[in-house]
Amino acid sequence: MQKESKNGELWDRVKLSNGMVGYVFQTYVKEVPDVEVEKIELSLDKTTINKGERIKLKVSISPSDAVDKTLKYTSSNTEVASISSDGYILGLSSGSAKITAKANNGVTSSITINVYSPVTDVLIGVQNCTVQVEGKYKINASVLPEDANNKNINYKSENEEIAIVDENGNVTGIAEGNTNIIVSSAEGNITKKVQVTVIRKLAEGEILIDESLNVNGNEITGLANSNNTVDKILNKVQTNYTVEIYNSSGQKIEGTSLVGTGSSIKIFDNDKLVIEYNVIMYGDVNGDGKINSVDLLVLQRHILEIKKFEGVFIKAANIRKNGKNPSSVDCLLIQRHILGLHNIEQK
Question: Is the model's pTM score more than 0.85?
Answer without folding.
Answer: no
